[in-house]
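Listing S7. Sequence submitted for prediction.
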Amino acid sequence: METRIAVIGIIVEDTEQAEKVNGLLHEYGQYIIGRMGLPYGKKKVNIISIVLDAPMDVISALSGKLGSLPKVSSKALYSKTEGTEEA
């Protein structure tokens, strides 16, 4: 299956959404290479970066589900090269 490396940037403006965000990330955990979270108290937001190696439809689905949560924004950035997932 063709996979891409991607980064999903997430901004959480309501900490009550954290449980739902973490639930989605857990659901897609098999594709996640790494995660970095930064609380930004001055603006009262949390910023999360997720790096994935996954098929494009999986990356789009996760980004869309995250962005559909209230007070949560997400955007995916894809690598230009495709690869195949190793067994």
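Caption to Listing S7: primary sequence and predicted structure tokens for the chain studied. The mean pLDDT is 93. Helices lie at 18-27, 56-67.
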